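Model: You mentioned two targets. I'll fold them one after the other.
Researcher: Yes, keep them separate.
Model: Target one:
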Amino acid sequence: MGERVDEGGGPVQLQRIGRRYLRVSLFYLSAGSLLGLGMLAWGNDNFQFVHTHMVIVGGLLFAVYGFGLLVVPCRFGQPGAIHAGWAQGQFFLANLGLAGMLAGSLMPVGYGLDRIALLFAAVLSLSVVLYAWVIGAAFRDRVPPV
């Protein structure tokens, strides 16, 4: 039972965040695919930016984040090395960044892609760097094999 929780929230909390990422990725993948189908059905390609970012960032990248949090700490490093609080913060930053970027891309020129979406793209990029730092802890704190 000592391995279930540590001071950073532990492996159990990381598994919850990883599963949450996978659920969110399934939502974005489904919504992006339905948006793409609608664009094809009505012959409207005005939402290509939203469609591609929902599928690629929301669907694929978030799935990679989830699998990374579920697999990397236990398989390649120490399960307690990753602080769950930082992983939780990264989860919210990534979702805020993507949602804001998508919303900003739907706004008119002068507000949308050139201002609001750019701001949220910076938040999303910050979350990518934070994820690299968070998941990198599993490799930094690795115990040498006996």
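Model: Target two:
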Amino acid sequence: MKPVLICTGLLFAATTLMAQQAPPMSMPPAPAGAHHGVPQSPPATATASFAGKTVTITYSSPRVRGREGKIFTKDGLISHDPHYPVWRAGANAATILKTDGDITLGDLHVPAGTYTLFVDMSNPTQWMLIVSKATGEWGLSYDPAKDLGKTAMSMSKPSAMVEDLTYTLTDDGDGKGTLKLEWENMSASVHLAAH
């Protein structure tokens, strides 16, 4: 009986001491523009069906975070990508295009399958969407030998600054639609058609 009482007493004493300790230190302040627990480039998905064929874009969405006017300039954020002027068109892992049926993007035929998207920004007023046959890539890996092909994108300015990089797939009816990429002060789109 004595050992049980001694153990119980020690456990009580230890619990009392732990309860009297100072509370844990709070987390350090977040960097400007960041929020604890919120990724700076969270995963996102755009999906739509065209004539019964599902098209999905899976990507990571970077934020402008106070860098307005410093994203797409010649010495801006994108210019630091190793394959610039080819841009990974997202963040983190490569941006993935998956289609369960044959489609056309602009004038490029894309068979059913999974691909990686890049954007060639060589001409700032006429971006080219690159569809790569390489998959499972980190976003900064780009091998032009693996291109399925390229197609011209229509360029415009969004009505307001776009904080989060966003892909949208819009069904325009009759198996046709639009793939659009918007971020900061740039909007680039390409017509899509299902076969």
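Researcher: Noted. Anything on target two?
Model: The chain has one domain: 40-194.
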